[in-house]
Amino acid sequence: MSDTGKVGSGVGERIRRRRGGLSIQSKLLIMLLAVSLLSSLVIGAVGFMNGRQSLNDAAIDQLITIRSMRASEVLEAVDDAKEAASLHSRNLSAQTLSTTLNAAFDELQQTVITDEQQAQLEKYYSDTFVPVLEERADEEYGTEAFIPESNAGRYLQLQYTTRNLDFDVDYDTLLRANDAGDGSSYSAGAERYGDYFTRLIEEAGYEDALLLNLEGDVVFSAYKGADLGTNLNTGPYRDTAFAQTYRDTIATNTVDSLGITDFERWIPSMNVPTLWVVSPVGNDSGITGAIAFQVSLDAVNDVMTGDEGWKSQGLGDTGEVYLVGRDDLMRSTSRRLEEDPEAYVERLIAGGGVAPTIVERIGQVKGTVLLQPVQTMAVEEAQAGRSGTIVGRDYIGGESVTAYAPLEIEGLDWVIIARIDTSEAFAPVAEFTRNVLLSLLGILLGVSLLSLLLAQVFTRPIHRLVEAVRRVAAGDLAVQVPQGSRDEFGDLGNAFNDMASSLRIKQELIDEQRIENEKLLHTLMPESVAARYKQGDEAIAEAHENVSVVFAELTGFDELASNLSGEEEVGYLNALMRGFDEAAQKTGVEKVRTLRGGYLASSGLAVPRVDNVRRSVEFARSLVDVIERFNSQNGTSIGLRAGVDTGTVTSGLVGRTSLAYDLWGDAVSLAYRVRSVTGEPGIYVSQTVYDRTREGYTYVEAGTVDSQGRAETVWKVA
Fold first, then answer.
1. Quick one: which of 270, 402, 380 has its CA closest to 328?
2. Are 213 and 219 contacting, i.e. CB atoms less than 8 angstroms apart?
3. CA 705 to CA 710: how far, in whole Å?
């Protein structure tokens, strides 16, 4: 066995002897034990999903049940109203009242209404009825439109309706005032049989009851309002749903017929939404007219709100059931409005989906019937004849769980909506979720602590290695991984430390070499050219305009150098060139290259300068100062000849195997020639330089040189 093999075998033996702790496989097996917790999580998740779904279904089922109960109650209430209207219209008292008052109404048709009486009636509407109506309805009305066309109608309104001066008090007085005291047969019949209507209003809870003849005349009204004496076929209310329902019902000519209207605003009741049930009066031998019962809006609201017992009936703090018509407007009141009108209006305004005028009106009347639009998916589905549930936006902008269904009521195109805020509907779900999560959290906490301990033990070496690798990647090659683990990670740490040490040594050598290369490169060319060269450019040449060139040459240095050793000669040259470089830096001139006895510089080459000509002349004068200081310090007598020109030049790298940065062109050539026009030391400039700087310096003419076939005057700085 070779020595190398013995060394490798010995290292392997030492590594195996150091592994007295657990191996990575053992640690991994311990961590895998934590996977047993997965079964707990799976069981908990399954239980959670099933429980959550059950509670969710229970909340929806409860809402559906409440919707169905309310729907049944509404159907029952409407059926009761229809049945009661049918029974009341067949009552002998109703038949007697109808025949008696029909005849009395016909008799009153012969009554002559004087101009004074007509004016009295007009004054009542213009001064009393219409102002209150406009205030409560928030609309404008004419004063003559409500006056009946017939003499009998106007006479009855003069005797009864005009007594209603306080619409919150006098209605109840007129309910019992059936005798007008005029001695007419109408008053006698109304007094004798009108108590039947009074009892209906007080006992059955109707808003009003009207008796009509076969011609459409309202021959009697329980409250003697503005509809008394009007004609539903030709009068001011001929275009109402009530009038159409009356006509349809009378057209059947049978007491078995029954009509019902949807809610509409009834002007004689101060524009309050009204629902009418119309039933013919008579018997099997024929009909004499019809009774119309005005169903109270409160009666519908009481059914839909459960007498405002929302919470006790399973609707919690936010649930409600309401009706919506085909026009997408409510047919019952909103719970939110009943409980907090101001907050309801503010929420409508914030939602922005309802016209401001409607919002204002809802706030004024504190009601939503025929005002509040409900344009939701639930309403669309119910109007399409479908029943179901949905979670989404409700009519006022919140999120609700909604159960919807159409209402099967003949004559009424309504849908019923039961809703409750999502947060409240799913509150049991949220509580169940919280309990499950807390239980699982306890289990997971224990497991997490164990997993954390195991993970720290297992991953600590990995974290050290990862951090060390990151530091190496960031350039910190001095990093070392602490030793301590006696397993495969320990071996990996040792290998990493060896690698880091090797990289550090190599990097130090590379850095030293790079610094030397940079220094050498910058002595050969400017930094900008060096940067391009390092990027791979080889043929670097650039043309520059308006560049000043200074070509300086030492005189007398060869005689001085003949008496110097090589080291002394180089020392003198270095001192001079350092001075030249400092002068170039101070005056903003760029050094191009240096020779043994010369110096080539430019201004405006690397950095364009407006005053590059002045800087070049100033630089040449600085070189003279450098020479004078050198002579003073060393007892020498060398001189300087410098030529300055400005114009177009070209700069670039010259050569391939031996690179050199150089400058050439007409300006360089002329600067070279003008320096030696006389052979004497001094600063010589071309005619162009002279023209651009003669204001700042004193010149004397020094001679001429040939430039492009013509004589160029050369000037010397005095």
1. 380
2. yes
3. 8
Measured CA to CA, the distance from residue 454 to residue 462 in angstroms comes to 13
Q: DSSP string of 319-374?
A: -EEEEEETTSBBSS--HHHHH-HHHHHHHHHHH--S-HHHHHHHHHHT--TTT-B-
Site of tokens 């008799």? 107
Q: Confirm whether pTM is higher than 0.85.
A: no
DSSP letters spanning 97-114: HHHHHHHHHHHHTTPPPP
Which of 626, 417, 665, 705 is CA-nearest to residue 548?
Answer: 665
d(CA 618, CA 624): 10
Task: Work out the widest C-alpha separation in the chain, in whole angstroms.
Answer: 162
pLDDT confidence of residue 197: 86
CA distance 490 to 497: 11
Model confidence over 425-451: pLDDT tens digits? 777 767 767 776 787 777 767 666 666
**Structure confidence at residue 475 as a pLDDT band (50, 70, 90):** confident
| φ, ψ at 562 (rounded to 5°) | -65, -20
Task: At 393, list the tokens.
Answer: 């936006």
- Tokens coding 459: 């991953």
CB 662 within 8 A of CB 592: yes
User: Residue 319 corresponds to which tokens in the numbers above?
Assistant: 């649930």
Residue 192 contacts residue 267 (beta carbons within 8 Å): no
- Say whether pLDDT at 8 is over 50: no
User: What DSSP string describes 601-669?
Assistant: EEESSSS--TTHHHHHHHHHHHHHHHHHHHHHHHT---EEEEEEEEEEEEEEEE-SSS-EEEEESHHHH
φ, ψ for residue 641, nearest 5 deg: -115, 125
What are the pLDDT digits (tens) for 370-403? 999 999 999 999 999 999 999 988 888 788 999 9
CB 548 within 8 A of CB 613: yes
